[in-house]
Design brief:
Number of domains of chain A: 1
Largest sheet of chain A: 2 strands, antiparallel
Distance between the termini of chain B: 53 Å
Oligomer: heterodimer
Strand content of chain A: under 5%
Strand order of the largest sheet of chain A: 1-2
Radius of gyration of chain B: 21 Å
Largest sheet of chain B: none
Low-confidence stretches of chain B: 1-14
CATH topology of chain A: Cytochrome C Oxidase, Chain A
Helix content of chain A: 55-70%
Number of helices of chain B: 2
CATH superfamily of chain A: Cytochrome c oxidase-like, subunit I domain
Mean pLDDT of chain A: 93
Number of strands of chain A: 2
Low-confidence stretches of chain A: none
Chain lengths: ~575, ~60
Amino acid sequence: MNLALLSAPYDEDGFRSCSVTGLKLHRSAERPVKLFVITAVVAMVLGGIAALLVALTRWEAVGLLPAADFYKWLSVHAWSLLIFWMVFMEIAILYVGGPMVLGRKLPAPKLAWTGWSLMVGSAGLILYAVWVSSPPNYQPLLTSYAPLESHPLFYLGAILFILGAVVAALPFFTSIWQEKVENPDRSLPLVTFGAFMTSIIALEALLGGLITYVPTFLWRIGALESIDASWYRQMYWTIGHGTQQINLVAMITVWYFMTYVAGGAEVISEKVSRSAFILYVFFINLGAAHHILADPVVSSGWRMWNCSYATYGAVLASLIHAFSIPAGLEVGRRRKGLGDGWFGWLKSAPWSDPGFSATTFSIILFGFMGGITGVLMGQMQLNTLRHNTFAVPGHFHGTVAVGTTLAFMGFAFYGIKLLFRRDWVAKWMAKAQPFFYAGAMGIVVLAMMDIGIIYGVPRRHPSVMDLPGTAFDFSASAPLFGVMGVTAVLAVLAGAAFVIVAVGSLLFGEETRPSEMLPDYSGLETVGTSAHLTSMRGTAALTAFLLFVLGLFYAVDWMWLARLWEFGA
Amino acid sequence: MRDEKAEAPGADSGRRDPSDPANDETDPGYWPAMIVLGLLFVVSVISFVRSLTATFGA
C-alpha cells in the first residue's frame, strides 16, 4: 500500500479543510478512517470470492463444491460480508459522523489503532478457525447454534472482534461527550446524531454478543458443563440480528450524508428525522425476535409485543426516513433551481456520479426489496410463511447486499476523492458499476425470494433437487436457481469492478482537488420559499407507490396465510 | 394551504434561473438508471404473477 495515501496537506494543528463539504478534518480522525475503509474493502474481496463459490454450488446445474466445502465457504462468505465488511465500514462512518463532521480531533487515537488491530487479528482468527474446522467441529456459519460445537478459536475470535469494535468505538463516544461538554446548547448535526444512534444500537448488540459468546466459549473449552440451547438462541440474536440493525441505521446515516453532498439535499425537518432515529433505538433490535418465533420457550405475550407492537415502532421510523430523505433531495434541488415539474429534480440529479447513483439505488431497492420483505417477515403471523426458507437470505440480501452495500460503495466512491484526494481510475467503470451491481443483485434477490416463497426451498441445504429419504421435490425451482446463479456471477463481477476502481484509484489515481471532481452546490443560492413551503409532490407520488406495494404484499401474504389452513382440510 | 403556495407561480423553488433550460437538463445517467429500475420492476411483476399463479393455478 502506498503509505502516502494516509497523509494529506494538514496545517500546523493537523487540520485541513475539505473543499467540497467544508468540513474541518483532523489527521487523527482521517487516517484511521482510511485504514478502516481499506480493511473493509479487503474483507469485501474475500467475501465476494466466497459468494461466487456459494452461488455456483446452490446453482445445482453447476454444483461446484461438495457439502463440507460449501459450509466452509458459506461461513467465510457470511462473516466476511455480513460482519467484517460492514463493521469496518461502520467504524469509519462513526469517525466521519463524529469528529469529522464536528470538526474535532479524534480523542485517544491510539484506541482507534488498538481497536483496528484487535479486529483484524480476531477476524483472522475466525477465518482460521473456519478453515481448519473438521468433524466433530461444525462450521459455524453465522449463527453457530449451540449445542453444535464449533472450533474453540472461532468463539475466541468472535469475542475479541466484539471487544475490538467496542474499543474502536470509544473515541467516537468520547468526541460526542467532549462536544456536549464544550457546547452544551448546540444540537448535534443530523449526521452526527444518526451516527450516535447507530453507536447506541451497536453497543447493545455488541454487549449482547459478549453475553452470548463468553459462556459459549467457556462451555466449548470445558469450563462449563453444558449450555442451554434456547438461552443461546435468544441471546445470540441480540447480536446476530443486532449487527444487521447497525447496518440499517448506519446506511440511513450515509443516505442523509450522501444525498446532501452528492445531490444537494436539505433536511426538511430535523426534529422528525431525529425522532425516527430515536424510535430505532427503542424498537429496531426487538425485531430480532422473529428469529425465535418457532421456539417453544418464549410466551405468546413476548412474541406479540416484539413482533407486532415493537415492530410497528421500527416500521414507523423507517417510513419516516423513506419520506424525509427523498423529500430532502427534492426540496434541496428545487430550491436550487435544479429541476422542475414532478420529477425534474430527479431527472437532473447526477446519476452519472457513482456516489449519487449507488446511494439512490440503495434507497430505492432497499425500500422495495429489503424493507417491505423485512416488514412482512418481522410480523409474528406472516413470518410462518417464510421462516427458514430461501426467502430469508432473499430478504437479507435485499437489505445488506443491495441496500447497505450500495450505500457503502457510494460512500467509498466519495471517500476516494474527499479523503484520499485521488481521481477515479477507469471512470466509465466507476460510473457503470452501481447500475450493473444494482441490476444484477436485484434480480438475485427476487429469484431467492421466489424460490423460498413459491417452492418453500430450505435456506441452507447445498443440494435440494434430490433429497434422499424425503418426499420433497424441489426440482421445479431449478430454472429459478439458474437465474439466481447467472445474476449472482454478474453481481460478483460488478462487485469486482468496484474493487478494481477503489484499489486502482488509491494506487494509480491522479492526485487532485476534490472540488474539481465532485458536484459543487455551494455556489447555488436557495432563494424564495422555505423548505416547508416547497413542493414535495414527486416524493409524495413515489412514496405513495411504495405504500401501495407494501399494502399489496401485506394483503397477499395474509391471503396465503389464510390458505394454509386448507392443508388440513 | 401549503400546496396552494407550492403550486403558485415561482413558488416552486426560488430556483436560480427558471428560464435557463440548463437547470432542468436531464443527466446522461438518468435513462440508464430508469432502464435498470424498469428491468427490476418487470421482473418483480413477473415474480408476483408467478407466485399468484402458483397459488390459484394448482
